[in-house]
Amino acid sequence: MTQVIPGSYIPMIRDGAVNKAMVFDSKATKHSPFAGSDQRRPLQSGLQEAGQYHELQTAGRFYPVACVALEITQRCNLDCTLCYLSEHAEQAKDVPLELLLHRVDEIWACYGAGTTIQITGGDPTLRPIADIEVLCRRIKQLGLRSCLMTNGIRASRLYLKRLAEAELDDVAFHVDMTQERNGFHSELDLNALRHQLIEDARGLGLRILFNTTVFQGNLDEIPMLCRFFAEHAKDLSLVSFQMQAETGRGHEAPRDDALTQARVAEQISKGFGASFPSAVGIGHSDCGQYDHLLVAGGQAVSVLENTTWIARVVRALAAADTSGHAVADIRQMVLSAGVRNPGLALRGLLEGIRALWQIRRGIWQAKGQVARLSVMIHSFMDASALDADRCASCVFMVMTQDGPLSMCAYNAERDHYLFAPQRMASTQGHSWWNAATGAVTPEPTQADLQPPAYKHMKGRMRVQEAKRRKEKAL
C-alpha cells in the first residue's frame, strides 16, 4: 500500500480518477462537477483501484459518500484521552454561520440530495442552538439529512425537542470510558447515562445512534455493551464501535497489538450472540465492517449471512436504480426489483422467515416486537501512516474551505485546515476570516499560534505541562 506522510501529499480525486502522486494543493480538493448518479464515480473509482469494488460493495454503487462532517466548533466540554482534535484546535474561533451555510451548499453540490451531514465539532452543543436550527433547516431544504454528534452533556430533552422541530433527523451520542466522566468507572457504569440519553431522545422522531471508542481499557466490556444495545434495540438505529487511532491530541497509551478489527468483531459477535460482520461492503474493508441485525428479547440474528442471496439482491437493486439520484432511493429500488423479479421477492420473504425463526424465543419473550439494528466497526488511520488507497476510498469525509477531504487525512493536518485564511464572499467583493482571531480583513492574514494558558490546555499538551510543573516543584 502507498503510504501518505502528513504534509507531503494527500490523494485527491479529479475527473473520477485517483491521483496518488498529486503534490498537496488546497485547490485540488475542490469537488469535480459531477451530477446525479455520476457523483458516485469518484468513490467507485477509489474502491476499484484499491481492489475493494466487489459484488457485495454498496459504497460507490448506491451512494457517493456515507457521511460528511460539518465541524461548527472546535470547543469541547470534555478532555478525552483519545481525542482526535489537535492541541491548538480549541484556539480556533467558531466558524461564521454564513461560511457553514456555504459548506452545506457545497456538500449538496458534491454529493446530492439524500446525503447525511454530521453536525459535529468539538461538541456542537456549545454553539448557540439557534445556529444549529438554521443549519438543520437549510440541510432539510436541500433534501439532505442531518445528524447531531454530541457527548450528550448539554443535549437535554428540551434541547433535542427544539432541534427535532427544526427538522434534525438523527442524534448520535458518543459515550465511552476515554471521556473520563466523573463518577463513572466502567462502561457498565456508563449504561445509566446511555439509558438516560435514550429516554431524552425517545419519541421525538429522531433516529438514535451510539458511538463507542474501543481501546484496551474497555475491550473486555464490549460484549456487555452489545447486550445493552440489544436490550434497547427498539429505540436505536445504529451502534458504531470506533477503534483507537494514533491521531490528534490524545494521551492514552499506544494501541495494543491485540486491539485488531478481528478481535473487536469477535467481541461484538459474542455480545449479540450473532455472526458479525457480514461480507457486505460499506467502503474499504480496512476502514469499516458492517452488519444488520434483527433483535428481539435479547436475541439477535444477521439478515446478511447468506452472501449468495445478498449478491443477487445487490444486482437486482442496481438494475432497478433508475432514478439518476446521487444517493439511491432504496424504497423505490426495492419495489421496482420486486415487481421485476417476483421470485426474488418470494426468496426474500423466505429469508426473512428463516431469520425470524432463529430468534423465535426472543420474539415470544418480546411479545412479537422485533427491532432492526445496524452495527459497524469504524477504523480510523494513524496520522503518521495514512494509506493512499484508503483515503481515496473514504466514505467519511469532512467539508473544508477547500472542499471535501478524507476525515483521516484532515485529522492528520487539522491545524493546517483550521487556521488557513478562509475567504468570504459578499456584495462588496471578497474578504478573509482568520480562525485564530475571528477577525474579517480585506486581505488574508496568517494565524499566529502560541501555546494556550495552562488552564486552557487539553490532551497531551496538558499532560506534558503538568509533568513539567511537578518536576519543577520537586
Automatic annotation (TrEMBL):
Superkingdom, natural source: Bacteria
Stored Gene3D superfamilies: Aldolase class I (3.20.20.70)
UniProt keyword Acyltransferase present: no
Originating species: Tritonibacter litoralis
Cofactor (UniProt): [4Fe-4S] cluster
Domain Radical SAM core, residue spans: 62-275
PANTHER family xref list: PQQA PEPTIDE CYCLASE, RADICAL SAM DOMAIN PROTEIN
Record's keyword terms, sorted: Iron, Iron-sulfur, Metal-binding, S-adenosyl-L-methionine
Molecular function via GO: catalytic activity; iron-sulfur cluster binding; metal ion binding
Protein name per its UniProtKB record: Radical SAM protein
InterPro entries: Aldolase_TIM, Radical_SAM_PqqE_MftC-like, rSAM, rSAM_sf
Entries under Pfam families matching the protein: Radical_SAM (PF04055)
